[in-house]
Amino acid sequence: MSRPVPETRPLAAAASMLGAMAVIGVIDNAVPRLAAEIGLWQFYAWRVVLAVPVILLAARLGLGSVRPDRLWAVVLRGAMLAISMMFYFGALSVLPIAQALSGLFTSPVFVLVITALALRQPIGPWRVLAVSMGFVGILVVLSPDPSNLSLATFLPVFGGLFYALGAIATRTVCAGEDVLAMLLAMFLVQGLIGVAGLSAVTLLQPEVGEGAAGFVTRGWVWPMSPLVHLLMVVQAVFSVLGVGLITRAYALGEASYVAVFEYSVFIFGPLAAFVIFGQRVGWNEVAGIALIAGAGLVIVWRLRDG
User: Fold this and answer.
1) What is the distance between the alpha carbons of residues 116 and 22, in angstroms, rounded to a whole number?
2) CA pair distance 78, 21, nearest whole angstrom
3) How many other CB atoms are there within 10 angstroms of residue 199's CB atom?
4) Which residues contact 186 (CB under 8 A, 6 or more apart)?
5) Which of 36, 38, 55, 91 is nearest to 269 (CA)?
6) Which pTM value belongs to this model?
7) What's the first-to-final CA gap in the chain, in angstroms?
8) How many CA atoms lie less than 13 Å away from 251 in the CB half-sphere?
9) pLDDT tens track for 127-177
């Protein structure tokens, strides 16, 4: 028996995606504050303890299933996204949110290139234009100084690459998997990476910088301040909510239509950073963000035509 065609509600889908981007754009501003006190690996390990009960509760309420059909597929996808977020959160500790988001949202460009090279799909002139716009946008936002380049400058771009790999896995090896199953796998892999990272820094005992500079090399910190406890709970719970809203958006509307609204995070993230922390966005960042968003829009529009 064939499944019924899902109802299409474009306005509700757009509202859901805008809500998701508003949630994610706001909560990710908490990461620099967390980075000043705890480490990336503790953030990963502790967040899974807080997020998994929320996912299990959603399954208990009948919102989906946490049992995957292909365990290896959801684990592979979870690993790609967990690595992506590791680079992204690491970037947030040392870069303004506008730069970190710009690097992460180069993922549509990477999806296009990887699909063409791995799946041998032809690339037309419009897609070449999109790749060029995205690359120029990266350079404009990051404004790399050849005499002062560092790994931190490219952290968000690495995040965009792995995010693209996870997106490709979602559409291929994870086709038909339940959203909650994929979400649970992603958080569990993040937890394992957190434990592995904590073990490594405990064993190697690297030099730890002050504040956010020690985010990657800092080991377990306990007790955490009440503010950090609160921010961790908010970050974990609302991360699950944000991904849930994204999933709902794609369930209610066509992907080519809904994906456009993901770029609203470039409004909500920097706006929240400005309101909460007074973090200003320069004209170069505005111009670069526009180019990157334009690259994604070109890709989405041309994909509608095949």
Assistant:
1) 32
2) 20
3) 12
4) 77, 78, 81, 82
5) 91
6) 0.79
7) 29
8) 11
9) 667 667 777 777 777 666 666 556 777 888 888 889 888 877 876 788 778
